[in-house]
Design goal:
CATH architecture of the largest domain: 3-Layer(aba) Sandwich
Helix content: 25-40%
Strand content: 15-25%
CATH class of the largest domain: Alpha Beta
Number of helices: 9
Number of strands: 8
Low-confidence stretches: 1-17
Strand order of the largest sheet: 3-2-1-4-5-6
Number of domains: 3
CATH topology of the largest domain: Rossmann fold
Structural class: alpha/beta
Mean pLDDT: 90
């Protein structure tokens, strides 16, 4: 760093939110505010590094400090406790890891998605029950099961999230990690009359990443990945954006 003045904005922003780096409005991001990203070699800030357990390959670890970190932190910081009913909406890049983490944490896990074809994935990842939103109304199905303490909303669709609120227990919480372009519409009575809440959750710090990796080893949580050579990064990205990945695209090099 050539001048100490360039660090001031980031420092000020971090101080403004009480040291919460993840929600800093002016944080440094590799590949965005500094060089790095899709490359065989890069320079990284030491404060952003996480130790990878020997039991994990690089291909396994990569999604775990992205989608894994997001879902793991959201669940462990939620009000759910072992034995509680936790629903995971969406079985994709986030959801397939969310289901595994929820099962490993000792929750009763319900997976919610569209189509009967997703049932096999729900069982594979450890869900105790699968709700096909094309065949049954998810909130009603959750109430039949006793109501969810937490709903982890991973599919990027506000329209799909909105009807789920009624499936929460009184005092239950929907934790949103899937970012869609539309709004989440919630009738006031659904929140107020049962003391329910909706909360957003965003990734975590470097130490949270280490915790995620360590817990993944303990809980036998593993991402389903497709590997693509670095030279085909653009094609892999396009495949991901079309929703065709099962369930995370990982770029690999010859090294």
């Amino acid at each position: 760093m050539a001048s100490g003045t360039s660090a001031a904005p980031a420092y000020t922003a971090i101080r403004a939110v009480g040291g919460d780096f993840v929600n800093c409005s002016n944080q440094g991001i590799s590949g965005v505010t500094s060089d790095g990203g899709y490359a065989e070699v890069m320079i990284a800030d030491q404060h952003a590094l996480a130790a990878v357990p020997d039991e994990l390959t690089a291909t396994e670890a990569a999604p775990l400090v992205c989608a894994g970190l997001t879902t793991y932190n959201a669940l462990r910081n939620s009000p759910a406790r072992a034995g509680d009913l936790v629903a995971v909406q969406g079985i994709g890049g986030l959801g397939h890891l969310g289901i595994q983490f929820a099962r490993a944490m000792g929750f009763r896990v319900v997976a919610i998605a569209r189509g009967s074809d997703k049932a096999v994935f729900a069982r594979q990842f450890g869900a105790h029950r699968y709700i096909d939103s094309q065949k049954e109304e998810p909130a009603a199905a959750l109430r039949t099961l006793g109501g969810a303490k937490v709903i982890l909303a991973t599919a990027a669709s506000g329209r799909a999230m909105s009807p789920l609120i009624g499936g929460l227990l009184p005092g239950g919480r929907m934790v949103v990690v899937g970012v869609g372009g539309d709004s989440i519409d919630i009738p006031g009575p659904e929140l107020v009359l049962a003391s329910r809440s909706v909360q957003g959750a965003l990734t975590g710090s470097a130490i949270d990443g280490e915790d995620t990796l360590s817990f993944s080893v303990l809980g036998n949580v593993s991402p389903m990945t497709e590997t693509v050579p670095l030279a085909l990064a653009a094609a892999a990205y396009a495949r991901m954006m079309r929703g065709e990945a099962r369930f995370r695209m990982v770029l690999v090099t010859d090294r």
